[in-house]
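From the shared-data thread, chain only:
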Amino acid sequence: MRATEPPVEPYGQSIRTQLATGMRFILRDPIMRPALLSVATCNLFNFGFAALFILYATTHLNIEPGLLGLVLGSGAVGGLIGAVVAGRIGRRIGIGPAYALGLFLFPASLIAIPLVAGSEAIILAMLFATEFGAGFGVMILDINAGTLIQARTPDAIRGRATGAWRFINYGVRPIGALMGGLLGAAIGVRETLILVTIASMAGLLWLIGTPILRLREIPAPASDY
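Structure, as tokens:
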């Protein structure tokens, strides 16, 4: 190495530095910060729900595996339709309100699962409806969130900001699943499903008083990072 060359930064330190840069941008930005906190809250508790859903459906609701597979497939149908109309909804009510709508519809659709009772036909109809609604809602959420995030992030730090976003948004998911399992063992599966579904909807609270709820158009890239 020639004397004029700067020392090479250790690989691990470089990753930490880039992550810290992306995280500083997200936490300082008035749009990115509440967007991340809200969706991370939703995913944290939703994965607590996912950890117990199959157990509850098969042992408490006595749904046969084949029927449960069809129920889960209805979520894919809802997701397909949601993907088709997500952009239109964003243009109609504004990208910020559309993001908030998806953040509500996704977990709110699932609240009926631990509350449903009655005949097998009623239970199955409700499960189909809730999975369809959740699939529809998550696509409204994901597509409008993706548009908002990509538009707001400056090109110069796009990779670092994306990495920081995923570090938090994906990192909370196994924590949520573990939490769901522990709560299920401690207070009961049905009670935990109710609790974590309500807590998932609490992600909306991070949006109160923020610019997101007033966003009608795609935001401009942040200038301060």
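The chain is about 75% helix and 0% strand.
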